[in-house]
Each structure stands twice: as C-alpha cells, then as structure tokens.
Amino acid sequence: MKRLLAALAVTVFAAPAAAQSDTEAPAAEQPRSESASPDGASEDAAEAGTTASGTSSSVGVKVTALGSHDGEFCARDRAMVFEDPNGTRILYDAGRTVAGANDERLGEIDVVLVSHVHGDHLGDQRIESVNAGTCDAPETNVSTTPNSNSVEIAVGKDAQMVTGSEMASFLGKKMEAAGGDPKASQLVRFGASVDVGGVAITTVPAVHSNGLSGDFIDGPLGEHLKTAGLNAYVGQPTGYVLTFSNGLSVYLSGDTGVTAEQETVVGQQYGVQLAVINIGDTYTTGPRKPPLSSTTSSSRRV
Ligand SMILES: [Zn+2]
Questions:
Q1: Fewer Cβ neighbours under 10 Å: the N or C end of the chain?
Q2: 86 alpha carbon to ligand 1 midpoint, in Å?
Q3: Residue 183 has what DSSP assignment?
Q4: Ligand 1 center to residue 189 CA distance, Å?
Q5: With a threshold of 0.70, does the pTM exceed it?
Q6: Ranges of H-type helices in the chain
Q7: Residues 31-58: pLDDT tens digits?
C-alpha cells in the first residue's frame, strides 16, 4: 500500500482497493501519514501516533489512515483524518477501526464526516484497541449501538458533524442522546458548503443506499424494523469535496456508483486534485469504471 500512499501524496486520483461486505474502504496504509498540497508536492509525514499530537506542514494537508492494524490495509479499514495546514482536523467515516473517542491516534478532531449510515461506516461496533484480531478478521467486538462510533467520537471530541440529507437530524438526536449538542450536527444540502475551521466542506450526492438498521434505533421501532427486514429512511448518502486553506481540493466519494456530479461538481466546478474513491465492483463502482476523467479534472489515475 505504500504505492497508494505515494499516489495520495502527489495528489492524484487514488484508486483504493476493495474491501469486503457492502462497502469498500478508502484505501491507505496506516499508521503512516502523507502530506499533500495543491501543486502536487508531497512529503512524508510522521507516523500516526506522532501525527495525532504533532504539528502539520506549513503547506501540506496531512492525510492519516486509522485502520485496524499498524502498517496494513485491512478488511474493515475506512477511517481517515485530514489535517489542514492551519490545524483543523477532519475525521472521515470512523467506521469500526477507531477505538472510540479515546483512541490516541485521533488527537483533536474538529469535524466528523459520515458518508452514510451503513454500520461499517457509521460504526455499529469498533475495535477495543489497535491490532486486535488479525488483519483479515479484525476484532471489532465493542458494540456501539444503538448509538454509533462516529457519534460517540464527535461528542467525545466536541466536534461538529456535517452531512447532507436527513442524516443530519438523525445524527443530531444521537448526539443529544450521547450527552452532546444536537446543533453540532449540521445539514449541508447537496452542492452547498459550510466553512469549518477554514476548510470548506461541500456535500455531493452519492449513488448507493442509506438504510438505517434497526440496531441503531432503540425500543420497539428498532425491533419492528428488524423483524420486518426493513431499514429506516435517513436520506441520500453523501460524498464530500473538501477545500483546504492551502487551496487543495479533495473528493471523498463514500460508497457510490458513478454519478453525474463527479463530472460536473467534483471535476468541473471544483477541479479536485486528490480523490479518495471507494471501490468494490459489487456494492460500489469498480476499478474499471473510474468516475473522474482526466479531461474534467486535474486528477489523474495511477
Ligand atoms: Zn454502504
């Protein structure tokens, strides 16, 4: 996976490897970090443990993968931290491989992003500690339902959550249930942006599904849903375009097939220089169908 990290570092179109189940992780090796800047310059950054407490590059955006196992890219890995040169830190899809808010790799977190509410992204369970179990079968035996790993981290870090669609009100209620401020869950409708700590966060639609399992709903409603084999509606899944204070523009696809907005909004409007694409070929787009063409974006594929 070092090769992929090199791809991240030169701000190219990164093509993550597939993961199992209904989703497909953004790929990167951990605990190494990489730094990316708009002109494509790169520099090796510190290991994740250092990253969490260290200072960022004066020009680069530091990207750190928080996987289940040190130095590996494993089946359940989803989580990434992006650190703006000004210090703002954004956690993307905590999933199951972050050991809650006390995971020492997190450091300060200002924003928690959730692409959609499937358990392996929102986090229906989590690791107890890094390197538990094997890379192929990480031990994610700490249940976080009916709340979630993402919300518990957001509340524990006093961070904001930013999502598109009806996920925002649902997550606000979960933040309140966890002792946090429900207003810290912000709705940003697709194509619109909010500035948090000098980073512009734009939401774009993803083409996937976004059914909320009854496991996340306490009481009889959750039980009824599970009995009927139904999920609750929480709106459309979300992708993100992050525009950092140094000008770097990054696309986070979430789980998705090819969308029109990848050509128009992500490519033409924002001209993203770095893309983290979830690839699976059964539940999301596959590696033979790159969603961003080199003609519409400054990104390129390696
Ligand atoms: Zn999914």
A1: C
A2: 32
A3: G
A4: 20
A5: yes
A6: 2-9, 48-53, 149-156, 167-177, 220-228, 260-261
A7: 446 677 776 544 433 332 223 323 334 4
